[in-house]
Amino acid sequence: TPLSHIRNFSIVAHIDHGKSTLADRLIQMTDTVAERDMKEQMLDSMDIERERGITIKANTVRIDYTAENGEQYVLNLIDTPGHVDFSYEVSRSMRAVEGSLLVVDSTQGVEAQTLANVYQAIDADHELIPVLNKIDLPASDLDRVAEQIEEVIGIDASGAIPVSAKTGQGIREVLEAIVAHLPPPEGDADAPLKAMLVDSKYDPYLGVVVLVRIMDGVLKKGDKIRMMQTGATYNVERIGVFRPAMTVVDALGPGEIGFITASIKQVRDTRVGDTITHEKRKCEKALPGFKPSVPVVFCGLFPVDSAEFESLRDAIEKLALNDASFSYEMENSAALGFGFRCGFLGLLHLEVIRDRIEREYDIELITTAPSVVYHVFMKDGSVTELHNPADMPDLTYVDHVEEPRIKATILVPDEFLGDVLKLCQDRRGIQIDLTYAGARAMVVYDLPLNEVVFDFYDRLKSVTKGYASFDYEITGYRTDNLVKMQVLVNDEPVDALSMMVHRDRAEMRGRAMCEKLKDLIPRHMFKIPIQAAIGGKVIARETLSAMRKDVTAKCYGGDVTRKKKLLEKQKAGKKKMRQFGKVEIPQQAFISALKMD
Ligand code: GDP
Ligand code: MG
């Protein structure tokens, strides 16, 4: 296909604004997939992606479109992850295309993720086509939303296309706009090969499948290629395009997007953003701005049943095969036994991996408190990265500690603004900006990431009844008064509940934690002290009194089935308990104790 007849684009949208539905409709209206093979959310392939309505890996589809001018076009859509945790991947895949559809739900308006993703698109020099979706709904307000796009994002929305991805209305106009308004790709077929590694995924039959965008040159089957960042070389075995099923082709030329396989063993061997060239005739300069994505949130994953450790190892290794940004190492906790310390791109990433282990591998997990990466500056001048609060050195050797900060953008209806400001303030936030767009406020806060990883998002949703949207980026590190708080149950430290806290908030957190644990730990035959401490100094304390009676005693011996049920319940409860010295702590306690309210 000549360059003039190729259009490469992505879709930018806030979650639930209709990105997947619109992609389905584009695929359907162009007969890319036979009607009988059409299923909903074509591009979201994993169950977990469909269920949570998020895309985790970049997906792509090649669409053949005959425009109203009678010409035949190839349209390549890259569906990028829509979540902040994967923003580096988003920014990479944006650089593989020339334009974006900016989809905004016309019953809702611009939201935080719309903004974050649209800025990435603007950064990548995209031509933007605003699309106002869900016009079939009575609450649709085209004028208001178009005005908001102009005001908040600052782009011309006069040509915005009203559509209903549900009914198909306006989809033809979107296809025509892609051809008319998005620029064709540029590139030189005779120049040395220069291709971008956009993403990669593991396929059980083919091994690692690499998504590539050709900038210059031509890539053919049998070619010997070199990854410029890793230095690895491979022989290309298969070349193809996604329709969206994998379809083999002979070659990919400039401007084209497709896949290759080359006996690459694991996704870890490929780096998103790397430049692929020919071993024989290398291109001179790699594509700019390559950086590996690094985990920012860490937590321990332990099997509830310690006999499942090997199965957990197996599950984690398999998941890591397909996810280079997920890191893990073995951890041995005095309280929880053997498990893994795992690193994630963010909280959602953590939840996705944890869900998959529990669901796909059927292993019940204890997840320890999520922690960010601290920089610990020692008095002897050395600096360490702290991934696990349990490893925090004794304070007498520590000079100071730095923590990561974020810039959070929150869009919220006016009526909830007060609650949002209070929440941010409570979490040690510093207000940077507050502006209005119609009846909604846009608040920008500088916040410590460690205050966000616990339950910030849940709290935000609950104080705003779900009407706020939130997005963030990490901005850097800053020194603050941070200490390790330990929790002792029956005088034994429970390392899984250790956390780094700000000194000023330690008493409050410690008290809340002790009160919670008092409710969560069942009574034993003896009195149990529950304490929070900083460096040996107790800052909060509760006492769980001893059990007096057998739980079935209150049944007065009469109702046998009820008695049985109670005993069974007790037994089932036991299974999810862990032994800490003489005390049994239910698994649920670990999760609940870490939530604040
Ligand atoms: P995504 O998160 O941006 O991929 O959004 P989805 O495509 O999954 O859509 C979110 C929800 O909105 C789904 O329940 C869709 O059925 C619904 N939806 C999408 N487009 C339209 C539309 O044009 N009209 C109506 N009424 N519902 C829509
Ligand atoms: Mg979707």
TrEMBL record:
| Residue ranges annotated for the Tr-type G domain, each copy included | 4-186
Work out whether the entry's keyword set contains Transferase. Answer: no
Query: Could you tell me what reaction this enzyme catalyses?
Result: GTP + H2O = GDP + phosphate + H(+)
Query: What topology does the record note for this protein and the membrane?
Result: Peripheral membrane protein
Enzyme nomenclature, EC number? 3.6.5.n1
Q: Where does this protein chiefly localize?
A: membrane
List of residues binding GTP: 16-21, 133-136
Highest taxon in the source lineage: Bacteria
CDD domains per record:
EF4_II, EF4_III, LepA, lepA_C
User: Where is this protein localized, as stated in its record?
Assistant: Cell membrane
Do the record's keywords include Cell membrane?
Answer: yes
Show the GO cellular component annotation of the record: plasma membrane
- GO molecular-function annotation terms? GTP binding; GTPase activity; guanosine tetraphosphate binding; ribosome binding; translation elongation factor activity
- Which UniProt keyword terms apply here? Cell membrane, Elongation factor, GTP-binding, Hydrolase, Membrane, Nucleotide-binding, Protein biosynthesis
What HAMAP family does the database record attribute to this sequence? LepA
The similarity annotation says:
Belongs to the GTP-binding elongation factor family. LepA subfamily. Belongs to the TRAFAC class translation factor GTPase superfamily. Classic translation factor GTPase family. LepA subfamily.
Q: Tell me the protein's name.
A: Elongation factor 4
State the organism of origin.
Answer: Roseovarius halotolerans
